[in-house]
Amino acid sequence: FSTDVIRNFSIIAHIDHGKSTLADRLLELTGTIDKKQSGKNEQVLDKLKVERERGITVKAQTASMFEEINGKKHLLNLIDTPGHVDFAWEVSRSLAACQGAILLVDASQGIQAQSISVFHVAKDRGVKIIPVLNKIDLPAAQPERIKAQLESTFGIDPSEALYISAKTGEGVADVLKAIVDRVPPPPEPQDISTNAPLKALLFDSFYDRYRGVISLVSIQHGVLQKGDKIMSCHTRKKYEVMEVGIMYPEETPTTALYPGQVGYVACNMKESSEAHIGDTLHRVGEKVEPLAGFKPTKAMVFAGIFPVDASDFLKLEQSIARLTLTDRSVTVQRESSSALGQGCRLGFLGTLHMDVFRQRLEDEYDANIIVTAPTVPYKVVYKDKEIIISNPTDFPDMADSIGKVKEVQEPIVKASIIFPEEHFGEMMDLCYSHRAEDLNHTFLDAGTGAQTRIMLTCIIPLSEIVTDFFDQLKSRSSGFASFDYEDAGYKQSDLAKMVFLLNSKPVDALALVVHRSQQDLIGRAWVKKLHGVLRRQLFEISIQAAVGKKIISRETLSAVRADVTAGLYGGHYERKMKHLQNQKESKKKMKMVGNVELPQEAFFSILGNK
Ligand code: GDP
Ligand code: MG
């Protein structure tokens, strides 16, 4: 293989703009998969059950195909990227192995928030961008208008845009030709002999039950073959290569991987933690400079996960460990709660990431869990140190620590929202009610005479968007608004810890960090919810929300005089015993806070767990 017949490319797009459908068509057109396989509109690259169900791509996947173009057989490596804002990091690492990207835009919807963010990631990476307008079969498609949008928003020359329907296949062959004609081949290595020093960029990995960790690599220099003794620049661990090959679209062994190629390597790696994304693999005994790596992932949302049945903890912990093998962007720590027992505190890239992980735990590991309210990493600044807090329980009580704590800060993000002009008022309201600042807006298709779309940017606390922001955005814009955000650091903020007390005993798993301007509202709402889900007991229960020593809200649940055996006539002994036994059983599942019983369902309904 000479590198001039290799092309490494990605498809980048806003969610639902047709990336998976186009990937299927490309694999079909090149004979990599047959029509029957993809005929049921099943997306070949979306492997996980959650991906199929939600129609989103979570993990980047890779596939190679061969096609004769311009009279030469080419090897085209497609590196799939996830479309959701939570996974922007995966987009960036996938692009590191590419020289080109197809920017796919739905011709009936136009540029959306993630079209913009993925465009910028691609531009920063310096890859060649091919603009492609999809869904031209739809009557609502307005490719001319979208072309103008591409020009005004990204400065893309309209003559470069291709028109396709990934659904019908129209124009898809031109996409393949454009990839070969416009995307540069991977850089030519100075020395292509098999004994040239090896440099392989590790850009993804997955776990295989039989072969252990399989790493996806992009060969930058040298040749990688079975039997090679290789080493990681990062861990200095040594491995013997058992198998190399390409994703065609599943793992297909080859004798070697050459410079510019993208493929997989199985080398008896036991733990996924050994496969560092961005690591450079080289041969034992050869000295190489490591390739420029990646920014490490940063957990933005944390939540506690507890087993419903406390005796399931070890099983849960094991399931979480297995699942994090396939998704290393999740961070895990043990956590214990007096109300919920042993559990784990997990860190995620965003709330969708959290939902997907939770769903996979339930689907693939049959886990029965309680997930606490999501929280963001707060920063507490002391005179001599700064601490990041990922669990509200650890947040200092400001009243006790005056003098010691200099200030508290919360993470903020720069948000961009794109929506049709008619929703301007609602979108401004939404932002203001979520503590947004620095609001700015621009018109996306100024001067085209068409119905105008607005791009609104603002700085907003991350904690505001991990709760109901996305749902409200969708409902207030009738589904027409799209949204994306990027990290914008930390900002001083007037925050406080809110705790909930049952007969004066705090329920640790329900602690929250709130902004003081919202404490009354949140306190009242949660106390009301608790009041609604608690069962009455033989004594009165006081339910309180407190910030520091101050009670924000209070409700009382009156006592009930319930003798469970009272309704049973005649003192039928056996029956009475059975009833008491049942009650004992159900008590076992009950969490106790002081003398108050907190039923499982209470946690479910308060925390919004299905
Ligand atoms: P992804 O989220 O970018 O991977 O998008 P998908 O490939 O899953 O496509 C989203 C939806 O758009 C699916 O229902 C597809 O069937 C549909 N779709 C994709 N391409 C086309 C197209 O060219 N025309 C039409 N009419 N629908 C399409
Ligand atoms: Mg998809």
Keywords for this structure?
15 helices; binds magnesium ion; hydrolase; nucleotide-binding; binds guanosine-5'-diphosphate; single chain; EF-4; 8-stranded antiparallel sheet; GTPase activity; 610 residues; 6-stranded mixed sheet
Describe this structure in words.
The protein is α+β, with helices and mostly antiparallel strands and 610 residues long. The chain contains 15 helices and 33 strands. Strands 11-10-16-7-8-15-12-13 form an eight-stranded antiparallel sheet, with no helix packed on it. Strands 2-3-1-4-5-6 form a six-stranded mixed sheet, sandwiched between helices. It starts with 5 loop residues before the first strand and ends with a helix. It binds guanosine-5'-diphosphate and magnesium ion.
Secondary structure blueprint with pairings:
Layout: E1 6-13, H1 19-29, H2 35-39, H3 49-54, E2 62-69, E3 72-80, H4 88-95, E4 100-106, H5 113-125, E5 128-134, H6 143-154, E6 162-163, H7 172-182, E7 199-208, E8 212-221, E9 224-225, E10 229-232, E11 238-240, E12 243-247, E13 251-254, E14 256-257, E15 262-269, E16 280-283, E17 301-307, H8 313-326, E18 331-337, E19 341-348, H9 351-365, E20 369-371, E21 378-382, E22 386-389, E23 405-420, H10 424-433, E24 437-443, E25 453-461, H11 462-465, H12 469-476, E26 482-492, E27 495-502, E28 505-506, E29 512-515, H13 519-533, E30 541-547, E31 550-557, H14 573-588, E32 591-593, E33 596-598, H15 600-606
Parallel strand pairs: 1-3, 1-4, 4-5, 5-6
Antiparallel strand pairs: 2-3, 7-8, 7-16, 8-15, 9-14, 10-11, 10-16, 12-13, 12-15, 17-19, 17-20, 18-19, 21-22, 21-23, 23-25, 23-26, 24-25, 27-28, 27-29, 27-30, 30-31, 32-33
Helix pairs in contact: 4-5, 8-9, 13-15
The structure holds guanosine-5'-diphosphate (GDP) and magnesium ion.
Guanosine-5'-diphosphate (GDP) binds at residues 13, 15-21, 55, 57, 83, 134-135, 137-138, 165-167.
